[in-house]
Amino acid sequence: MARYFDVHPDNPQKRAVGQVMDLVRGGGLIAYPTDSCFALGCALGNKDGIDRIRSIRQLDDKHHFTLMCQDFAQLGQFVHISNAVFRSIKAATPGSYTFILPATKEVPKRLLHPKKKTVGVRIPDHVVTQALLEELGEPMLSSTLLLPGHEEPMTQGWEIKEELDNQVDGVIDGETGVEPTTVIDFSDDVAEVVRVGAGDPAPFE
């Protein structure tokens, strides 16, 4: 049964944030709010967590997982960015965008797109997500909480707890957006808008 955490949207309680991240460090899978919508998250090296995300969302091996990063310094450890791409991404972050970029050796192989060797990265503009990432001290492996057969992502913590009670270890209630991120593919150094979502695609078109 999943633990339920009621975290303040503007002033996240340090104790609650610590408890959630203890779950993640211990191999747990959580559902948490972001500036776009709810996401599933686990520690980077958590193979079981990755398998559980794939199972919950029924994903194939071509799915791009996202590294939820606290800031640019962290993001830069995990992806290769040219100067031109750096400026484009910097202007749009933090925000509701996911950027697909070539991965560095810091990224576990099982997270990479099998052919392109790319991974998704993003820096969220969300108080609670930022508090979680600060406490964790490294990116959190994430995927939008969009269930098979659902047209839209789930946006209510209590609904997620009811639906996924035996499949996740923790659910953080909180305010969230209702659209997934806008996805921009920079794997060839040229912006390609792959999915239009919460972030304005205009700067990349």
SSE blueprint:
Layout: E1 3-6, H1 14-25, E2 30-32, E3 39-42, H2 47-57, E4 66-68, H3 72-78, H4 83-92, E5 97-102, E6 118-122, H5 127-136, E7 140-144, H6 157-164, E8 170-173, E9 182-185, E10 192-195
Parallel strand pairs: 1-8, 2-8, 4-6, 5-9
Antiparallel strand pairs: 2-3, 3-7, 4-7, 5-6, 9-10
Domain YrdC-like: 14-199
Pfam families: Sua5_yciO_yrdC
Organism: Kribbella yunnanensis
Describe this structure in words.
- The protein contains 6 helices and 10 strands, in the order βαββαβααββαβαβββ.
- With 205 residues, it is an alpha/beta fold.
- Strands 1-8-2-3-7-4-6-5-9-10 form a 10-stranded mixed β-sheet, with helices on both faces.
- InterPro entries: DHBP_synth_RibB-like_a/b_dom (IPR017945), Sua5-like_dom (IPR006070), SUA5_domain (IPR052532).
- This is L-threonylcarbamoyladenylate synthase.
- Residues 14-199 form the YrdC-like domain.
Distance between the termini: 44 Å
The helix-and-strand class reads: alpha/beta
Q: Helix share of residues?
A: 25-40%
Rg (CA only)? 16 Å
Report strand %. Answer: 15-25%
Order of helices and strands: EHEEHEHHEEHEHEEE
Low-pLDDT stretches: none
Number of strands: 10
